[in-house]
Amino acid sequence: MIKPSLTALAAVLALSTPAMAEKLTPQRVFADPSLSGPTAKGVALSPDGKRVTYLKGKAEAANVQDLWAADVKGGEPYRLIDSATLSSGAKELSEAEKARRERARVSARGIVEYSWDKQGRFILVPLDGDLYLDSIADGKVTRLTETPGDEVDAKVSPKGAYVSYVRDQNLYIKPVSGGPEKALTTEGKDALSFGVAEFIAQEELSRATGYWWSPDEAHIVYARVDENGVDIVPRADIGPTGATVVNQRYPRAGRPNAVVDLFVRDLASGKVVQLDLGANKDIYVARVAWAKDGKTVYVQRLSRDQKTLDLIAFDPATGAGKTILTETDTHFIELLDNFRALQDGTFLWGSERDGNSHLYRYAADGKLIAQITNGDWPVDKLEGVDEARKVAIFGASMDSPLERRIYEVSYAKPGKPKALTSGGGWWSAKVADAGGAFAGSYSDPKTPPQTALYSADGKRVRWIEENKLAEGHAYWPYASTLPVPEYGSLKAADGSALYYEILKPTGFDPAKKYPAIVSVYGGPHAQRVTKGWHSPNERTYLEAGYVVFKLDNRGSGNRSAAFKRALDRNLGTVEVQDQLQGAKFLQSLPYVDPDKLGVMGWSYGGFMTLMLLTADNTPFKAGAAGAPPTEWGLYDTAYTERYMGTPADNKAGYAYSDINTRLDKLKPGSLLLLHGMADDNVIFENSTRVIAALQKKAIPFEMALYPGERHSAPGSKTKGLSVLNTHLEFFDRKLKGQ
């Protein structure tokens, strides 16, 4: 077990911290180098276990990433591929690739993804719509494609003979050894696509791909996505120099979804077989995976109402399938990524059937062998499997929902999980395909993200990015006044524990009373109160003299099934009650001015901000609502129907949560409304309808719009500083009278 050197860090801070810390400005937050230090992203272990590869932003441009590597036996990390040598970064990405990156919340440029072949001979690097191959033997980088269209979702086949990709809505393969590409599908155009994950799969089901290689690379399963029945929502993509209209296929709550069918292609014969998903086409293809021997295709089929999840085992030769496992829930199924097919024919499965997310082992025919984990805590994610030792490696918050550690447990003889990492902060891991070694990343409020390679027993082998907060680190000039959150909990109306954190202003004086800002998300799944490293932009509010408060209300993630399902069919109710309770607690603190409370949030947090500003006897004097869903009938099917049902089935719930029905309660001048003008997720109409209603009622409000920005405007390299400054200036006027 390895513990980050917090004691050593404390000693360094005590001995060599600058006498007076500099004030952290918004301008510095968005400048380079990154204040959080060099962070390893997309960490992967080479198949031979000799090196670790990862993505790292340039020191002079943190938003532009290169591919780096570190040898396991030691030595300094080195850059494998400089993205600038392959691309100027000036290429305009296709609408499909822009949308794909938005779904994945990828805002970086340069190298944003890569993949090893399983033999460890080369690395496939997609870059600005084209594909490159880096040979490990000689370091030579070869350009594989140079086409007008973008090659997306590129993969190396399991035995390394092919590279596969989607271009212009069709699936292609290309021999690594050379030769022309081959189109496996040719009918993709307009509303018909092959090998892609549809909008809903990417945005709401955490499925980013639409095709899957068999282990022996003899077959490919691919999706046929027919969006002809999906409503076209004309979306004005308003940029700084003009506007275009994008006819986006956007499936709104209660309206038709894309029809997804699955096919298996035999590469040698060209034979194509359809997998029989059943007569009901109004379903979701949630997950697809192959058995280790390549003789079975496992498909997770989710019902439209998301209360039934079937695991179907298909014969790829005939397309016939048998349902071997079914999960049901009276509220909704929590989709997990904890399925693993094992070499012995059994498989691991995740379920919340006992009240928490836990791991189970099943025989190939779907017969339960054993529950592997149990307890009043949830398994967050199955990080990997070491089949030689028959152990599952997973991340969980067994000690506290605020901390996350990496554990292992035997799936052959289940017992008490063994902690591989220390407590006190937040861990994530990327586990090797074999052997149990893992790249672990750790942070806590005093430790920016650190990444190292660990052996299977949790011992640190070498640093990948130590990222030590010491002299020379970008954050060092501000380190002496590093904000440390205070954590606590409140009791919800149903007795549930609601965890919160408080950040106090820089130079805090307990004798003074400060204005306070509640930073809220509030929506299902998300967890914001953790003992991890905090974004430096939060500190700018502390520098400006604000108390910042966050609370995870009922419905948030990493908790029991009952806690998460408290929002079922009731968005805008219990989570608002919990946040109001948090605000009341905040007002009771001796150093908080109870008359100077603000609230801010983006996306679901924007919806929550509007709900809180229009609550009866709201304690909030001002609020900044970013990209808010303002009427759930305008949002997408899978997310909205999971928690609200359809508009036809839950008329009262949809009506209650419609922001426009509450605007008479809005205090004049208390609202700042923000939205990206090219948002393809929470469509701009969500804000324009509120704008029109407020203007009709002659209720004064403020507005900030961001031309060309999609849903992730606060993190935008070009607009992020403006978003932050706009918030600060607004709250300074409304809460301080400046």
Describe the structure.
It is a single chain. A hairpin with a 6-residue loop joins strand 3 and strand 4 (78-81). Mean pLDDT is 94; it is low at 1-19. Among the domains are: 184-335, Methanol Dehydrogenase, Chain A (8 Propeller), CATH 2.140.10; 483-736, Alpha/Beta hydrolase fold, catalytic domain (Rossmann fold, 3-Layer(aba) Sandwich). Helix content is 15%, strand content 34%. The chain is of the alpha+beta class. An eight-stranded mixed beta sheet has the order 37-38-40-39-41-42-43-44, sandwiched between helices.
What descriptive keywords fit this protein?
single chain; 738 residues; alpha+beta; Methanol Dehydrogenase, Chain A; Rossmann fold; eight-stranded mixed β-sheet; five-stranded mixed β-sheet; 13 helices; globular
Task: Offer a concise description of the structure.
With 738 residues, the chain is an alpha+beta fold. The model is unreliable at 1-19 (pLDDT under 50).
Protein topology:
Blueprint: H1 6-16, H2 26-29, E1 41-45, E2 51-58, E3 61-71, E4 78-81, H3 83-86, H4 95-103, E5 109-110, E6 115-116, E7 122-127, E8 130-135, E9 141-143, E10 152-156, E11 162-167, E12 170-175, E13 182-183, E14 192-194, H5 199-204, E15 211-213, E16 219-226, E17 232-239, E18 242-249, E19 259-266, E20 272-275, E21 283-290, E22 297-303, E23 308-314, E24 321-328, E25 340-341, E26 347-351, E27 358-362, E28 368-371, E29 379-386, E30 391-396, E31 405-410, E32 418-419, E33 426-431, E34 438-444, E35 447-454, E36 460-465, E37 486-491, E38 497-503, E39 514-519, H6 536-543, E40 547-551, H7 561-564, H8 574-588, E41 592-602, H9 604-613, E42 622-626, H10 637-644, H11 651-656, E43 671-676, H12 685-696, E44 702-706, H13 720-736
Parallel strand pairs: 3-5, 39-40, 39-41, 41-42, 42-43, 43-44
Antiparallel strand pairs: 1-2, 2-3, 3-4, 6-7, 7-8, 8-9, 10-11, 11-12, 12-13, 14-16, 15-16, 16-19, 17-18, 19-20, 21-22, 22-23, 23-24, 25-26, 26-27, 27-28, 29-30, 30-31, 31-32, 33-34, 34-35, 35-36, 37-38, 38-40
